[in-house]
């Protein structure tokens, strides 16, 4: 038993080998209909300056916490370097030549012990001259944020009060989260950061603001584009540009046009800037496009079959109708007691509201978040969940990517992820990202896919299993408490 999410094909060896570089000509983007979640309405700034107090920089041994978990050793990342710069993987943060201020941020504030695999490989590539571009794919929850946050912090000049690093994210939640990480990690450096997302209150414009003087700006593309256009964000000193969730930032149904525009604006004033592209997913189409757009990059990739997280067990349940899906959530999932936090993914804001209402009427305490909410409410709901004041969050795909909450160990797909304009084709990338909200940095987790008893849902699940070469185990009867318990025990979330 226990063949849940087992990988079918044998994993290929993944030694880091230097191979020929790719990437040459540039192409113009193709434009199709847009689906954007992050940055629908766009104004306004929000001050979020980094703390610049500089305490004593000595790092006491006892302040170095034990790392909570060890990353699995078998995270098969394949490296392809461009040119002949030699890179040595950094097995310790000490190998990276970081300032004492940054070392203190890593050990004392972040409480990290050693770099994860993607950090060990990518950080030398990011920091070593000639500062080549980097396309980096690594598993969900494997610590990609630290790669680019540390990259930005170590490359900017704290004494120059001008924007030098820019990070673009698909949603306000992710921009805010990345700002928080940077403030924490950079606490002792004196480096300031500003978040560029639409104002909390819609319709309020922030275009009367002063020009940005913070060294790092992190935000969503609409606001960043506006700040550039209105000369609030100067590009003269910009030397590093990061795309988090880069495949979405460069997809035609994501933010490709905005991203290319921003890249071109920077290139015009500063042709030698460095671009970093990070994501857990790069499908072939996006990969091809990136290869034609970003010249001579170093590259890190993971094979599709190796992307599923071993620590997160996946299950599917066929439910006779919509009502029984709600019953599964109510009778099985909500009754599990204290097993951590749960995210229930739905397809639309209408489903979010419906499910929220149904569960609230049954007396359950749930909150929900989707892109049509007021920004202020959206921020508040997410913050409450992050502060563990709430346990169950119903969400559309606004938080499918990047959202990092270590206590989330259960993900429920109330609706399966399908592409918006494709007649119900699975959205493979979104599936993987949803699953990746559980099991952060090797933690245990479980995913329940609630399928309606029609060909469509069942086919979507089958296609997803085939695409990732994973077997998702079935809960045979939707109302068998016993089966859910067995599943959760197997996932390590319930005691024997
Ligand atoms: P992703 O690769 O999905 O972007 P994140 O960067 O959000 O992953 O990191 C996932 C979690 O792992 C975060 O909570 C982060 O604090 C933690 N983490 C990252 N790097 C380390 C490390 N070197 N040691 C311990 N925990 C880490
Ligand atoms: Mg991330």
Textual characterization of the structure:
One of its GO terms (cellular component) is nuclear envelope. Residues 328-483 form the Helicase C-terminal domain. This protein is α/β, with parallel strands linked by helices. The chain has 2 domains: 17-302, P-loop containing nucleotide triphosphate hydrolases (Rossmann fold); 312-490, 3-Layer(aba) Sandwich (Rossmann fold). Helix content is 31%, strand content 16%. The chain is built from 14 helices and 17 strands. The chain has helices spanning 100-109, 117-127, 144-155, 172-185, 221-229, 246-249, 256-269, 284-293, 322-333, 349-361, 375-386, 428-435, 455-468, 481-490, and strands at residues 6-7, 77-80, 134-137, 165-168, 193-196, 216-219, 240-244, 274-279, 298-302, 312-319, 341-345, 367-369, 392-395, 408-413, 445-452, 470-471, 473-475. An 8-stranded mixed β-sheet has the order 2-9-3-8-7-4-6-5. A 7-stranded parallel β-sheet has the order 12-13-11-14-15-10-17, with helices on both faces. Helix 2 runs parallel beside helix 3 (144-155), helix 3 (144-155) crosses helix 4 and helix 5 (221-229) runs parallel beside helix 7 (256-269). The longest helix has 14 residues, at 172-185. It is globular. 48% of the residues are buried. Mean pLDDT is 86; it is low at 1-69. Bound molecules: adenosine-5'-diphosphate and magnesium ion. Residues 67, 112, 115-116, 119, 138, 140-146, 404, 406, 440-441 line the site of adenosine-5'-diphosphate (ADP).
């Amino acid at each position: 038993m226990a063949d849940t999410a087992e990988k079918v094909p044998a994993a290929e060896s993944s030694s880091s080998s230097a191979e020929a570089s790719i990437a040459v000509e540039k192409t113009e983007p193709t434009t199709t209909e847009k689906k954007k979640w992050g940055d629908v309405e766009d104004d306004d700034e929000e001050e979020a300056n980094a703390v610049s107090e500089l305490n004593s920089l000595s790092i006491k041994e006892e302040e170095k916490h034990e790392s909570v978990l060890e990353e699995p050793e078998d995270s098969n990342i394949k490296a392809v370097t461009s040119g002949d710069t030699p890179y040595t993987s950094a097995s310790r943060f000490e190998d990276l030549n970081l300032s004492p201020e940054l070392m203190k941020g890593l050990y004392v504030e972040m409480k990290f012990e050693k770099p994860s695999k993607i950090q060990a490989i990518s950080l030398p590539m990011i920091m070593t001259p000639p500062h080549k571009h980097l396309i980096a794919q690594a598993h969900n929850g494997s610590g990609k944020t630290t790669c680019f946050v540390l990259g930005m912090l170590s490359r900017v000049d704290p004494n120059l009060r001008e924007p030098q690093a820019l990070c673009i994210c698909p949603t306000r939640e992710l921009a805010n989260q990345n700002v928080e990480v940077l403030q924490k990690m950079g606490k002792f450096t004196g480096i300031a950061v500003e978040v560029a997302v639409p104002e909390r209150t819609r319709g309020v414009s922030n275009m009367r603001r002063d020009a940005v003087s913070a060294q790092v700006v992190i935000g969503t593309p609409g606001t960043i584009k506006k700040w550039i256009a209105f000369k609030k964000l100067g590009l003269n000193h910009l030397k590093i540009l990061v795309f988090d969730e880069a495949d979405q930032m460069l997809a035609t149904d994501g933010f490709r046009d905005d991203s290319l525009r921003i890249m071109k604006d920077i290139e015009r004033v500063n042709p030698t800037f460095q671009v970093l592209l990070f994501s857990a997913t790069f499908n072939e189409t996006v990969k091809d496009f990136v290869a034609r757009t970003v010249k001579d990059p170093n590259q890190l990739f993971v094979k599709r079959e190796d992307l599923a997280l071993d620590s997160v067990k996946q299950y599917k349940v066929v439910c006779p109708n919509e009502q029984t899906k709600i019953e599964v959530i109510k009778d099985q999932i909500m009754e599990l007691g204290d097993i951590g936090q749960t995210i229930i993914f739905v397809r639309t804001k209408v489903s979010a509201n419906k499910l929220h209402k149904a569960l609230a009427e049954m007396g359950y305490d749930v909150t929900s978040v989707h892109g049509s909410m007021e920004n202020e409410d959206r921020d508040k709901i997410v913050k409450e969940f992050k502060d563990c004041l709430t346990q169950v969050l119903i969400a559309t795909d606004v938080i499918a990517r990047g959202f990092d909450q270590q206590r989330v160990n259960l993900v429920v797909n109330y609706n399966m992820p399908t592409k918006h304009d494709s007649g119900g084709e699975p959205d493979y990338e979104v599936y993987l990202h949803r699953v990746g909200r559980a099991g952060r940095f090797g933690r245990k987790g479980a995913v329940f896919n609630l399928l309606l008893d029609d060909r469509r849902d069942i086919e979507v699940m089958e296609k997803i299993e085939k695409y990732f070469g994973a077997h998702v185990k079935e809960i045979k009867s939707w109302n068998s408490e016993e089966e859910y318990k067995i599943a959760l025990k197997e996932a390590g979330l319930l005691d024997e």
